Amino acid sequence: MNDPPADDIVIDAHNLTKTFRDLKAVDGLTMQVRRGQIYGFLGPNGSGKTTTIRMLCGLLTPDSGEGRTLGYDIFTENELIKRRVGYMTQKFSLYTDLTVRENLDFTAALYEVADPKAKVRDTLDWLGLTERRNQLAGQLSGGWKQRLALGAALLPEPDLLLLDEPTAGVDPKARREFWDRIFDLARRGITVLVSTHYMDEAERCHEITYLSYGHVLARGTVEEVIRESGLATWIVSGRSVADLAGELGKKPGVEMVAPFGNTLHVSGTDDTALTRALQPLRDRPGIEVQRGTPSLEDVFIHLMADNGAENGAGAPRPGGES
Length: 322
Prior knowledge:
Blueprint: E1 9-20, E2 23-34, E3 38-42, H1 49-56, E4 64-69, E5 72-73, H2 78-83, E6 85-88, H3 100-110, H4 116-126, H5 142-154, E7 160-164, H6 172-187, E8 191-195, H7 199-202, E9 207-212, E10 215-220, H8 222-228, E11 232-238, H9 245-249, E12 256-260, E13 263-268, H10 271-278, E14 287-292, H11 296-307
Parallel strand pairs: 3-8, 3-9, 6-7, 7-8
Antiparallel strand pairs: 1-2, 1-4, 4-5, 9-10, 11-13, 11-14, 12-13
Helix pairs in contact: 3-4
């Protein structure tokens, strides 16, 4: 992958480390994000995604490493970073006892937005919130709260938008509409860094980084991450394939068996051994075995299985950090 021009890099971080007491939340993270890119952070709960986002936007100072966001040093110029970054937190953080419009009016005043009335009006219109402008924020559904939070994050016209699990608990239609707006923002040149648990959302990102308990396990485009995993996947379909999962999981070369409806995704990094393990199934009536392409979910389950135990899978993280 060719390196982007220096003036096209919005986030440039090298060997960032952050420790809480005796727990390393982020350990040697290095990443670059280009202007106008939608960049995805993935990983299990407690993997360091939120900690990384907070370091990059100036809310949390790393213990070591170096990094620049929007050209500013994240150690010494964090106040300058905050002025040009929109941050949508994982938990709805606006005032539930204020109306939609009052929340946006307050945010506009807080950031001293030019021509605030017009800006709030345009934001309400763009997000489809005009008819709900007098509704209390606390009475909104999850999808409408999400739109309001996005609007508040965008009022100061940031160059970089940081979204921490923005669609958690939101229905599929609202998620689709939210992502349509994110792509609209990227087309305008706004850079978006988003953390998510959803594989379909990860596949929408231009590039992704997969974190596991403070460590970067994979990075690149979705295609690059899948290819570089070295994972081979076969699809087993037919009657009662679920009954085969336990049997296949014990065979040499089979590292993972994942049910997908009426099929099984059977994966491993030794394709020869995997093919040999599946060969007897070809003679069973009603069972079909065919080569498949590893999905992003296949790859991430594989990464978690390989790295969970040694990196402390399941260990509690400080303050519920993700």
